[in-house]
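Dear colleagues,

As part of the handover before I leave the project, I'm documenting each prediction I ran so the next person doesn't have to rerun anything. This entry is a single chain, and its sequence is reproduced below.
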Amino acid sequence: MSHQTSKLNIDDIGKQLGLTPQFLFEAADAASTQYMIFDLPKRAGGLRTICSPKNELKRIQRAILEALLWEFEMPAHVHGCVRGRSIVTNAEPHVNKALVLTLDIKDFFGSVGVELVRSIYQERFNCDEYTADILTKLTTYGNFLPQGAPTSPTLANIAALPLDQSILEICNQNLATFGFSRYVDDITLSGDSKLALLLPEFYLAVKNHGFTANKNKLKVGLPANRQKVTGIIVNKKLSPPKKLVRKIRQQLYYCARFGIEDHCEREGTNPQEFLNQLHGMLGYIRMTEPELADKFKIQLIDIQSGISFKTFDQEEAKFHLLKFAIEEEVNVTFTYENSHRRVAPSDLYIDDESGVKTLRAFQIFPESGWERFNILSIQSLQIEGHTS
């Protein structure tokens, strides 16, 4: 990472983190006592031990992550816990492939020991031995990376890079074309049917680099079946699971029929929790099908306001649709004073005395500049990319 010839010492790191060397030394000395340990049930059964750092240690780890670890340039195939990358970018290399394999690394964080973490700070971040020791104490618990520390995913990603390189070499030597990505502890490979013959070599590489493959969690996707990578369908194009889309449609239908509060009472949940969950599902769909997510969002706003957005002669309906456009940062088009307008909505206002609703927006067409519009006078309102 670094082009420096001299090693970084604790003073250098302290300046980067905005913390004194003495504070870092004392925090490192006490770090092992600054965790809350508890178990969470796994979906597939069993328990996962979480080592969650207490607030002060977590703040130090966050500073180490943002000021130091994020400076490391992660290779393009690494997607989990990397800024600017996501489950969608992880799935993209595997679209429309004959075979998709996903290997799971067992106890990923627990496989990265103290010595390996110390060597990462020394070799990847050019720290001297004493500084690497302090940073290691601040970001490990016992003899491993704690699951719950903000620094653990990035350190584990770096620790697995030699394994990634070995897998790439196996693929390059045996396959004409292939897809390869890793999302934290999930390694995904895609290509033609020859890929399956390389599975023993992949397992051996995992073992040789100090990790363990969970062979019970091997996923094999064929075109005739549903090929899924980090929850995204990749058979022909990137798309959300049909089961999720059906669930959202069903929830919106029941909300429209019975009302949100009555529906939540039937489901045994409260409206705020229900809406938070629904917005989370819409955010998931937005990553691959933003237009479908927008369509669902408009239906939800329709249900919440009790107003149909299919008729835009109502001031309140237009107000809520413009609110949606502002939240989603999308442009709108409408007719105003017999002129076609295209604008980027910015703010909505309601006059305290008259109750008149106005929109402040940056007009893109016909001439550009900031304008105010009386919402009641807006006609034929549409969000760009949608039909009313």
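The first strand starts at residue 35 and ends at 41. Confidence is low (pLDDT under 50) at residues 307-313.

All the best with the project,
I.
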